[in-house]
Amino acid sequence: MNNSDDTIVAVSSPLGSAARAIVRLSGPMALRAALTVFQTPETIEETATWRWWAGTVALAAGGTTAAVPAALWLMRGPRSYTRATIVELHLPGNAAVVEAVVAGLCRAGARAAGPGEFTARAFLNGRLDLAQAEAVMAVISAGGERELAAAQRLLEGRLSDEVRELVGRLRRLAARVELAIDFSEERLPIVSAAEVAAEAGAVRDAVVGLSRRAGQTARGDGEVRVALVGRPNVGKSSLFNRLAGAERALVTPVAGTTRDELRETFVLNGSRVVLSDTAGLDEAVADLRRSDEIYGAARRRTLAALGRADLVLVVAEAGNVIAEESVRSDLGRLLATLAAPAIMVINKCDLAAPDGSGGAATQARAAAGIIAGRGRVVTTSARTGEGLEELRAAMSEALGQGEVDRSAEAPAVAARHRECLELTSEALGRVAELAAGEFDEELAALELREALEALGGITGESSREEVLREIFAGFCIGK
């Protein structure tokens, strides 16, 4: 991030001819720099703030100086957007005039602001948290009333308030667990495994519920995003091609062929569906923590697709669901942590059951039904096309019954926020598992810290600098 002691300047109004253009400065030298180009017959008092003065800006051209009507608005820190002094010069919207004024301000000691630098300073100075800072760009880019209303709720801090309340609960739980570690030899009843399991489970339910209630700020296009997720080589790419009606995804018997997210758009009962094929989650479906370089990049893309998804198709192979307890356990954990509604798709049902009896579809559906509870289970064969119409019908039903939240009435959540919520939920799921077994306070404390880091990333409490740079790089210059 740039030096916040600099005085920055940028044009904050849209480019092009207009009745008025706005040149904005922020920093300790903002007023002094502005007064090198702006003149007014009135006195600007030392304590004056949130006021404006009429005057002119002097422009030199062809050996003469012209006085152009202008107005100066002054907002002294800390009662300003950036919490540093802000000055705005309101000028005629002529590109040559604006360019000459900005050049004069730079000669007076200001420097050109980078993308989003005004809002970045508001975040760094505590005026906004990170979710509210992102809402600024969402307000600017809103394409309709629903998008604007969702972005305004985010800017008001509704999501941030809920996140901070959950962070507080996690901090209190983590403190008790860490205290139990410090006094483990004293055998004091500081916190029990049952208490840890109950509170971690309650917070996880709240996290999942928050994400399920939330619509994305960047969405008003009527599209529904559907993501395919599962272990490698369970037939996700074949299902992708079948559903999309196009041979887009490479299908091979080699596990892990898909590393990038593939997308295809098609229409389902009048709804425009954007279908994503994601990289397989290796080893264990719910293992979202592996960090080796190749897998890590694919995992991040899968997480991003899950974060954007309105509906998730969790794909598993029929034979594995029937025969392997570890597969069933992984699927159960994944379903419990998904924020979006899900349909479990048991694929490769054209193959015989592991015991040689046939009827893989019937056996797999029974096993999957236990995992999914009341959730939908569909058996398919991407090779033969069996079950594809049932899957399309299940997807249509999920859309038609309102399971996919299109109202955007909840605090708006961007894809990055959804990813943070997914990681939080996953970490808390591991805490609950630890507490249900042979309880290890040190491992539980580590998982709670991971959950806190992920959840705090929404408001910026635990965001790395490269994340901040990426977010603000997408802003307009002057905002």
What does this entry look like structurally?
The chain is an alpha/beta fold and 479 residues long. The protein folds into three domains: 8-129, Gyrase A, domain 2, CATH 3.30.1360; 140-215 and 411-460, tRNA modification GTPase MnmE domain 2 (Four Helix Bundle (Hemerythrin (Met), subunit A), Up-down Bundle); 223-400, P-loop containing nucleotide triphosphate hydrolases (Rossmann fold, 3-Layer(aba) Sandwich). It is built from 16 helices and 13 strands. The protein has helices at residues 30-34, 95-107, 117-124, 130-141, 145-155, 158-182, 193-213, 236-244, 293-308, 318-323, 325-337, 360-372, 388-400, 415-436, 441-459, 465-473, and strands at residues 8-11, 18-26, 38-39, 51-61, 64-75, 86-93, 111-112, 223-230, 262-268, 271-277, 311-317, 342-347, 376-379. A seven-stranded mixed sheet has the order 3-4-5-6-2-1-7. It has a six-stranded mixed sheet with strand order 9-10-8-11-12-13, with helices on both faces. Helix 12 (360-372) links the parallel strand 12 (342-347) and strand 13. Helix 6 (158-182) packs antiparallel against helix 15 (441-459), helix 9 (293-308) crosses helix 14 and helix 11 packs across helix 14. The protein is elongated, with a radius of gyration of 28 Å. The two termini are 15 Å apart. The model is unreliable at 215-221, 249-259 and 283-295 (pLDDT under 50).
